[in-house]
């Protein structure tokens, strides 16, 4: 993908839900980002994937999407928009990696100056566990087959990262179909 103009950033987001009505809740995410400012454009939204729970907590399967959004925002502003959507979905924080009405993670942010890297625990970039998560990588590949993720070992193709995951993790990510509305404008 091309580099965004100065002042703009392109963000890859992952959203997941496994409580309530996950399909309806996930539909709030591209709409919520698109509505958060006139500078914001939802560039691509993956299909919805049914995904086996990652992280070792026994719970229902999740539904996940990955989306790409652009706008004139700082990284912490992307996190804030996602957190506001989690609040709207009445998200509570109980068990780590446990069930969620909605979880919005900031996977990576690109600016004209390159990929943002941050060790701040409030917003660690790129997301430190994204490379391990088929539920992030496979939907991302659907909307950007050439995607790269900056890892501790440097930039890596998402296609290669997903191929390196155990087959059962990839097999646990099954494409269901599109969200029931279009956020692309
Ligand atoms: N890249 C990031 N995306 C989203 N949240 C982040 C990120 N980096 C740090 N955080 C922080 O992590 C905190 C906990 O987030 P959350 O409850 O969604 O974690 P989790 O989904 O249980 O686990 P994980 O971080 O492994 O996805 C948030 O309050 C946020 O400040
Ligand atoms: N498949 C899948 N597993 C998860 C997810 C998620 O979105 N999808 N979110 C979690 C919350 O931290 C924990 N585990």
TrEMBL record:
GO terms for biological process: folic acid biosynthetic process; tetrahydrofolate biosynthetic process. Keywords: ATP-binding, Folate biosynthesis, Kinase, Nucleotide-binding, Transferase. Residues 96-107 form the 7,8-dihydro-6-hydroxymethylpterin-pyrophosphokinase domain. PROSITE patterns: HPPK. It catalyses: 6-hydroxymethyl-7,8-dihydropterin + ATP = (7,8-dihydropterin-6-yl)methyl diphosphate + AMP + H(+). Pathway: Cofactor biosynthesis; tetrahydrofolate biosynthesis; 2-amino-4-hydroxy-6-hydroxymethyl-7,8-dihydropteridine diphosphate from 7,8-dihydroneopterin triphosphate: step 4/4. GO terms for molecular function: 2-amino-4-hydroxy-6-hydroxymethyldihydropteridine diphosphokinase activity; ATP binding; kinase activity. Pfam families: HPPK. Its EC number is 2.7.6.3. CDD domains: HPPK (cd00483). InterPro entries: Hppk, Hppk_sf. This is 2-amino-4-hydroxy-6-hydroxymethyldihydropteridine diphosphokinase.
């Amino acid at each position: 993908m091309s580099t965004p103009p100065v002042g703009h950033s392109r963000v890859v987001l992952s959203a997941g839900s496994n409580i309530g009505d996950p399909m309806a809740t996930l539909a709030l995410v591209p709409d919520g980002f698109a509505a958060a400012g006139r500078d914001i454009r939802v560039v691509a939204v993956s299909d919805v994937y049914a995904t086996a729970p990652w992280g070792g907590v026994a719970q229902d399967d999740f539904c996940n999407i990955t989306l790409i959004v652009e706008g004139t925002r700082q990284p912490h502003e992307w996190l804030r928009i996602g957190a506001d959507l989690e609040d709207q979905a009445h998200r509570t924080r109980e068990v780590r990696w446990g069930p969620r009405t909605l979880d919005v993670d900031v996977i990576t942010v690109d600016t004209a100056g390159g990929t943002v890297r941050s060790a701040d625990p409030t917003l660690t970039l790129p997301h430190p566990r994204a490379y391990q998560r088929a539920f992030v990588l496979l939907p991302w590949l659907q909307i950007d087959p050439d995607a790269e993720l900056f890892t501790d070992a440097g930039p890596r193709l998402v296609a290669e990262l997903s191929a390196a995951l155990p087959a059962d993790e990839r097999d646990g990510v099954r494409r269901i179909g599109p969200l029931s509305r279009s956020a692309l404008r």
